[in-house]
Write a structure and sequence with these properties.
Elements lengths: L1 E6 L4 E6 L2 E7 L4 E7 L3 E6 L2 E5 L4 H11 L6 E7 L6 H7 L2 E8 L2 H10 L8 H4 L2 E5 L2 H7 L4 E7 L13 H9 L1 E10 L7 H15 L1 E10 L7 E9 L1
Parallel strand pairs: 7-8, 7-10, 8-9, 10-11
Antiparallel strand pairs: 1-2, 3-4, 4-5, 5-6, 11-13, 12-13
């Protein structure tokens, strides 16, 4: 069985040889599929796009965690998206976290990930006590938020009809208000090759206009994503 992602916008196609389908269902928000493969282990697709693999996911998660690294202790961290929990353990292993909030719009993503990617959820009791999960629209949640965070990570999909609000100027204004002074924002920003004009440049412009400083584009290899090269934008609150 050959499972493929074909992106009409970027004109790219990538396929993975899979052994069988494990799960396929449309949640309230998106189509979720899980496949079993020999090379990558279990694979998650959201709306026909590869999102997560059981093996070889470290390029994405390790890059994000390295950008989040802070010497400061007792940090408050927010992840908008990230319902697969792939970032959680690495974050706790890398930085001193007081509390970690996860805002995920789709509870089904968490439930399915817990079943098919169980290693991400093997957390100590001490870590679990520091995690707060809210099943909510990240745009609405941050608009009403009163907590100040040291690190905010936007671990969302590319700007589809649901996620496009998470790249808007109004969203970033509320992110700015929700960061401590010198707080860090890390935003998933697509392919530096294919998404320069539709994601990266507009995002950098919005962040700069709002007042974020030290804005950098950070690329890394990610074989299952279009072009094989992906990125995070990192910036700081002035």
């Amino acid at each position: 069985m050959l499972v493929s992602e074909f992106n009409r916008q970027t004109g790219t196609k990538f396929s993975i040889k899979c052994e069988k389908s494990l799960y396929k269902k449309k949640s309230t928000f998106q189509k979720i599929e899980i496949y079993k493969s020999k090379i990558y282990g279990n694979i998650m697709m959201l709306d026909n796009c590869f999102m997560l693999t059981e093996k070889g996911n470290n390029q994405y998660h390790n890059k994000c965690v390295s950008l989040a690294h802070r010497k400061k202790s007792n940090l408050k961290v927010l992840i908008i998206g990230g319902g697969d929990f792939g970032l959680v353990k690495n974050l706790f292993n890398t930085i001193d976290i007081r509390s970690l909030f996860i805002v995920e719009i789709d509870k089904t993503v968490v439930d399915v990930s817990m079943k098919y990617f169980p290693k991400f959820f093997k957390l100590t009791k001490k870590i679990k006590e520091k995690i707060v999960i809210a099943f909510d629209d990240g745009y609405n949640w941050i608009r009403n938020n009163k907590i100040l965070f040291d690190i905010i990570i936007i671990d969302c999909t590319d700007p589809n009809p649901i996620a496009k609000k998470l790249y808007s100027k109004n969203f970033y204004k509320n992110i700015y208000k929700s960061l401590n002074q010198r707080g860090v924002l890390i935003q998933q920003s697509g392919s530096p090759i294919l998404n320069k004009n539709d994601i990266i440049n507009p995002t950098i412009t919005n962040l700069s206009t709002i007042g974020f400083k030290d804005i950098t584009l950070n690329s890394f290899n990610m074989p299952i994503y279009p072009s094989g090269l992906w990125s995070f934008i990192k910036c700081k609150k002035a």
